[in-house]
């Protein structure tokens, strides 16, 4: 070189720097591959756990025979006690549940254990570890779509029930049309309308979408909800053309148009108690069974205040200007 320096020494130094960079990238790739292999193993174990579930065989007809191996004996006892005339008829019904969260997932489990004919589940969200304070979902299901995780669990509980899962947001224009189509033709017996819709969503927009769809189809439905403070909730029975629709007089718990998505954006979240969720779910399914099997009286509106153990009831009249 003209300046008397050795260019080869500079070349070696550059090579060493590139080698260090390459080594660092290789290490990162190695650790990423390790994480990937670990995740694949976890998924394989999850699939294996599902396949190893000791699910019972399907039962063609419900029996009232009293024996330990009969999962329906205590349900069929309702006939003997004069509560229900024909409990077996529950197998003929199709119920759609919108929102498989704290209330919807438990309602789905209760109806599954009761032997409902078919459940159609709608929810576009995934299971999160933040959901573990509620009932039903388990930590190993984190990351899975709520509807698919629910179907896996519910099938193991009762293989006699037929399930249909839809993982999409019903409030978009395209998905709303798909939602209406399934409500209109989801009945597994007749290919006609479902027998009942249960709204278990956590936001005002979704409730209004369900209200619009059910009004359009003249579809009977139940609305349910739990307040952001977790100590109150309600259920409401809606018959299009007869009772007040949700838009006529929405319960105060949702009238503020505040939902969990808004709260999360602000860095906080709604409070949630599994006890309140369980109570509201129980009231919802109890009235669902009364409506489907025609026993007792279905409550038009039933509230719940956990602080006072108070259950207010009322009848909401249609708004003529709605």
Automatic annotation (TrEMBL):
GO biological process: protein ufmylation
GO CC entries: cytosol
Gene Ontology molecular function, alphabetical: ATP binding; metal ion binding; UFM1 activating enzyme activity
Keyword Membrane in record: no
Family, similarity comment: Belongs to the ubiquitin-activating E1 family. UBA5 subfamily.
InterPro entries: D-isomer_DH_CS1 (IPR029752), ThiF/MoeB/HesA (IPR045886), ThiF_NAD_FAD-bd (IPR000594), Ubiquitin-activating_enz (IPR035985)
Protein purpose: E1-like enzyme which activates UFM1.
Keyword field contains Nucleus: no
The THIF-type NAD/FAD binding fold domain, residue ranges: 72-322
Organism of derivation: Argulus foliaceus
Positions in coiled-coil regions: 33-60
Name the UniProt record assigns to this protein: Ubiquitin-like modifier-activating enzyme 5
């Amino acid at each position: 070189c003209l300046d008397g320096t050795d260019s080869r020494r500079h070349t070696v130094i550059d090579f060493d720097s590139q080698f260090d960079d390459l080594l660092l990238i290789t290490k990162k790739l190695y650790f990423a591959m390790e994480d990937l292999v670990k995740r694949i193993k976890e998924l394989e174990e999850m699939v294996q756990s599902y396949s190893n579930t000791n699910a019972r065989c399907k039962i063609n007809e419900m029996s009232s025979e009293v024996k330990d191996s009969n999962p329906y004996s205590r349900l069929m006892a309702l006939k003997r006690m004069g509560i229900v005339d024909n409990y077996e008829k529950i197998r003929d019904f199709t119920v759609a549940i919108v929102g498989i969260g704290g209330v919807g997932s438990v309602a789905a489990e209760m109806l599954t254990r009761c032997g409902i004919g078919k459940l159609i589940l709608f929810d576009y969200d995934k299971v999160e570890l933040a959901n573990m304070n509620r009932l039903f979902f388990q930590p190993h299901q984190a990351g899975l779509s709520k509807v698919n995780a629910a179907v896996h669990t519910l099938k193991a509980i009762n293989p006699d029930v037929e399930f249909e899962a839809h993982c999409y947001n019903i409030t978009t224009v395209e998905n709303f049309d798909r939602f209406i189509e399934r409500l209109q033709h989801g009945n597994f017996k007749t290919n006609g309308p479902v027998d009942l819709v249960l709204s278990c969503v956590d936001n005002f927009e979704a409730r209004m979408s369900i209200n619009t769809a059910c009004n359009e189809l003249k579809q009977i439905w139940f609305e349910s909800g739990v307040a952001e403070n977790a100590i109150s909730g309600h259920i409401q029975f809606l018959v299009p053309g007869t009772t007040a629709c949700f838009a006529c007089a929405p319960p105060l718990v949702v009238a503020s148009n505040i939902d969990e998505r808004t709260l999360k954006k602000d860095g906080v979240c709604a409070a949630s108690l599994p006890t309140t969720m369980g109570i509201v779910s129980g009231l919802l399914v109890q009235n669902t069974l009364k409506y489907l099997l025609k026993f007792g009286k279905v409550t038009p509106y039933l509230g719940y205040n956990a602080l006072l153990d108070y259950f207010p009831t009322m009848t909401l009249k249609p708004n003529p200007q709605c």
